[in-house]
Design brief:
Order of helices and strands: HHHHHHH
Helix content: 55-70%
CATH architecture: Up-down Bundle
Number of helices: 7
CATH class: Mainly Alpha
CATH topology: Four Helix Bundle (Hemerythrin (Met), subunit A)
CATH superfamily: dinb family like domain
Distance between the termini: 45 Å
Largest sheet: none
Structural class: mainly alpha
Length: 158
């Protein structure tokens, strides 16, 4: 199987419909959360909404590059989320996340394998492969946080 197809399968597992590694995925977790839960602050931790925005920010930014555009994202803006003040605001963020996730998976699946070894935008960012694997690792990291936050919130207010 082509490396790009394997990467796309791994992305789909963490973002949309997998259960293999974490026994859950972003889509499942986010669809179980209300806007009140998504915005509930626990100590100094990021909220579920902030983490959703953050992962979506990188999906959208890297997706732009995969489609031939420029790298226009910066770490310093990756948590600059608009306020979530209603269920509609939250559902819009979730839908945008899921849309970008699906598009990202499809773009990765269609990358020619030799492209994976090419430089991603600038030598300092490594290869396309490194960046896509980074998205997978980053997504699992934050999926774990979302899952734990959700459990903590449910324990506080069942």
């Amino acid at each position: 199987m082509e490396r790009s197809k394997v990467l796309a399968i791994r992305l789909r597992e963490v973002l949309l419909d997998g259960l293999w590694i974490a026994n859950t995925n972003f889509k499942t977790q986010l669809q179980l959360v209300s806007w009140v839960q998504a915005t509930q602050k626990i100590g100094t931790l990021n909220t579920i909404a902030e983490l959703t925005y953050h992962v979506n920010y990188y999906l959208a930014g890297i997706l732009n590059v995969l489609r031939g555009g420029e790298l226009e994202i910066s770490d310093k803006y990756s948590f600059d989320m608009s306020l979530i003040e209603s269920e509609t605001d939250w559902r819009n963020l979730v839908e945008e996340f899921l849309k970008h996730a699906e598009e990202f998976v499809l773009e990765v699946a269609n990358i020619q394998d030799q492209k994976l070894d090419e430089t991603f935008v600038d030598k300092k960012y490594g290869t396309y492969l490194r960046n896509i694997e980074g998205v997978i690792e980053h997504s699992y990291y934050h999926l774990g946080q979302v899952s734990l936050l959700r459990k903590m919130i449910l324990e506080m207010d069942p």
